[in-house]
Design a protein that fits this description.
Distance between the termini: 36 Å
Largest sheet: 8 strands, mixed
Radius of gyration: 18 Å
Number of strands: 8
Strand content: 15-25%
Order of helices and strands: HHHEEEHEHHEHEHEHEH
Shape: globular
Helix content: 25-40%
CATH class: Alpha Beta
Structural class: alpha/beta
Strand order of the largest sheet: 1-2-4-3-5-6-7-8
CATH architecture: 3-Layer(aba) Sandwich
CATH superfamily: Alpha/Beta hydrolase fold, catalytic domain
Length: about 325
C-alpha cells in the first residue's frame, strides 16, 4: 500500500473511533426510534411543509442567469452575521424527482443550521422540462454552478470557502453528490478552475443509482451512467453521511449500500445510517425523527470541524 493509502487508512481509522464514541450511539437512536412508515403506506402528511411556510430567508442572491431567467440562493444568515465573518455553509437542495419541488421545501434545513451559526442556503435550480429542453444534466450543472458562486463570492457573503457542506434530499441529494462526482458536466463558459467540490456531503434518501435497478434511468435516458453517483466513486472525496430507509422503493437501499461500500473501498470517509422499515423520505413525515436526524447531522459536522459556534465578527 502506498504512503498516501496508509495516510487515508489512518484517517479512516481515526474517524471510525471518533464516530464510535459520538455519532454511533446517536445514529443508532435515529435508526431505532420514531414512527416506522412502511414503503407501501398511503400518502402521509408532511409536517415540515407547515414549518417551511412560516420561514423566510434573510435575503436572496442571483447566482446564475440562464436565457434571462435568474436562479437564486435563498440565504439564511445566523444572528449577528457580518460580511467580515467566515462562517461554514450548509447548502440544502430540495428533491422532487428533478421535475418538482422548490427552494422553500428545504427552508427548514437551511434555517436549522443558520440557528447553529452556519450560513444556511436553500438552492433554486432548473427543473427537468422536455418541452424547454431542460434535462437532468441542467439540474446537475446548476448545483455545480452554485458551489462555484459560493467560493468566488465567499468574502461578500461572509462565509468560509473551505467549509461548504452540500446536502440534499432525493433528487436534491443526487445534485449534492454531483458537485463532487461529475467532472466535466458544467455550464458552458463557466470558470471550471474554481472547484465545485464540497467539503462534506450530507445525503438524505438520495438518488444514488440511476440504473434500471435504481431511479432515474427513464428520465435521463441512454446517458444515465454519466449521472449515476454509484458509478463515479473515486478516492479523495469529502466526508459523507447518508440517511436512508430500508424499505425505500423509490431509491432502493441496495444502490446506497453499494455506494457506501465503494466509498469505503476507495478510502473515503462514509457513513450509512439506515432506518428500519423507513419509506422514501421517512423522516420528513415525522418531526421527532426529523429532529433526531438533524442532531445526527450536527454530530457528523462537528466531528469534521464544520460546525463550530462562532461569535459575531469571528473570522476564524
Amino acid at each position: 500500500m502506498t504512503t498516501k493509502g496508509n495516510a487515508m487508512t489512518r484517517h479512516q481509522q481515526l474517524f471510525d473511533r471518533r464516530f464510535s464514541r459520538t455519532l454511533l450511539p446517536l445514529c443508532l437512536a435515529v435508526a431505532s426510534c420514531g414512527v416506522v412508515a412502511k414503503a407501501d403506506s398511503p400518502r402521509l402528511a408532511r409536517p415540515l411543509a407547515a414549518v417551511a411556510a412560516k420561514l423566510e430567508p434573510t435575503r436572496t442572491v442571483v447566482y446564475k442567469r440562464v436565457n434571462g431567467r435568474p436562479l437564486h440562493l435563498h440565504i439564511f444568515e445566523p444572528d449577528g452575521h457580518r460580511a467580515s465573518d467566515r462562517r461554514p455553509v450548509f447548502l440544502a437542495i430540495h428533491g422532487g424527482g428533478w421535475t418538482g419541488g422548490k427552494a422553500r421545501d428545504f427552508y427548514p434545513f437551511a434555517a436549522h443550521f443558520a440557528r447553529l451559526g452556519m450560513v444556511g442556503i436553500s438552492l433554486e435550480y432548473r427543473l427537468m422540462n422536455p418541452g424547454l429542453g431542460t434535462t437532468v444534466f441542467e439540474c446537475v450543472k446548476d448545483g455545480r454552478s452554485a458551489m462555484r458562486y459560493l467560493r468566488v463570492h465567499a468574502c461578500d457573503l461572509g462565509i468560509d470557502r473551505r467549509k461548504i457542506v452540500a446536502s440534499g434530499g432525493s433528487a436534491g441529494g443526487h445534485i449534492a453528490a454531483a458537485t463532487a462526482l461529475f467532472d466535466g458536466i458544467d455550464e458552458e463558459g463557466e470558470d471550471v478552475s474554481v472547484s465545485c467540490m464540497p467539503n462534506a456531503l450530507v445525503l438524505y434518501y438520495p438518488v444514488i443509482d440511476t440504473s434500471p435497478d435504481g431511479y432515474g434511468q427513464r428520465k435521463i435516458g441512454e446517458r444515465w451512467r454519466e449521472l449515476s453517483p454509484v458509478d463515479h466513486v473515486k478516492p479523495r472525496l469529502p466526508p459523507t453521511i447518508v440517511f436512508h430507509g430500508t424499505c425505500d422503493t423509490v431509491t432502493p437501499l441496495e444502490g446506497v449500500k453499494l455506494f457506501h461500500e465503494r466509498m469505503r473501498k476507495a478510502g473515503n470517509q462514509c457513513r450509512l445510517v439506515t432506518h428500519p422499515g423507513g419509506r422514501h423520505g421517512y423522516f420528513i413525515f415525522d418531526l421527532k425523527l426529523y429532529a433526531q436526524v438533524m442532531e445526527c447531522t450536527e454530530a457528523f459536522l462537528r466531528a469534521n470541524g464544520l460546525l463550530v459556534q462562532q461569535q459575531a465578527g469571528n473570522n476564524q
